[in-house]
TrEMBL record:
Superkingdom of the organism of origin: Bacteria
Protein name: Phosphate transport regulator
Organism: Methylococcus capsulatus
InterPro entries from the UniProt entry: PhoU-like_sf, UPF0111_domain
Length: 209
């Protein structure tokens, strides 16, 4: 397999997929701001998730003829983490569609903002693929780790606040616990994608030395 050609194809696919994630996050922001007219936003998010699935199929097709190697496995793992990001955003919309909350919790907006910042940082790093500078991807991974930690804190502080002050009904608290849990896991997927991208970079450097 000519990996130079495959890398160019994969770079475009992954950049397009991350663009879908950004668009999906923006649609989710509009959904949170307009829960009374959720159907339009949820429909757009569903379309973006389907587009992302098609892109991932293209990525796997690009790797299909590659011989078994650590690099191929790492790239497949990276693709799965990107897919998990978009799935998490779509799952958030699906749960909102089921639960029909009347207003968005501030913590959900905070978690969405964190995840969007992480996606944009990943997208910027993908501009350098497949020749990501080691220092650059290390900085990306460290920045995303800070963001992931911030997301954990937002989620757990919200849970603690609900236990202490019970500002929501038990049903609403359960609904938002699920929604926030999905968003928090989405930030985990962003961080794990950065980890794998760093492993891909290190593998390439070892092979080149």
């Amino acid at each position: 397999m000519n990996f130079d050609h495959a890398d160019l194809s994969l770079k475009e696919i992954f950049q397009d997929h991350l663009s879908c994630c950004v668009e999906c996050g923006q649609a989710l922001e509009r959904l949170f701001a307009d829960l009374d007219a959720a159907e339009t936003h949820i429909g757009l998010i569903r379309q973006l998730e389907e587009k992302g699935d098609a892109l991932m199929r293209k990525a796997y097709d690009a790797l299909e003829t590659a011989p078994y190697s650590e690099l191929v496995l790492l790239i497949q793992q990276f693709a799965r983490h990107l897919d998990d990001i978009l799935d998490g955003l779509n799952d958030t919309a699906r749960v909102i569609d089921i639960f029909t909350p009347r207003r968005a919790e501030t913590a959900a907006l905070d978690l969405l903002a964190i995840s969007q910042g992480m996606v944009r940082r990943l997208s910027a790093e993908m501009d350098h693929y497949p020749e990501n500078p080691p220092a650059g991807i290390k900085q990306c991974r460290e920045e995303l780790k800070v963001s992931e930690t911030d997301a954990d804190l937002v989620y757990h502080e919200w849970r603690k606040s609900q236990r202490r002050y019970s500002t929501l009904s038990l049903l609403s608290e359960s609904d938002w616990t699920e929604i926030l849990g999905i968003l928090e896991k989405t930030t985990d997927s962003c961080y794990h994608a950065a980890l794998v991208l760093e492993r891909i970079t290190k593998y390439r450097l070892r092979q080149a030395s």
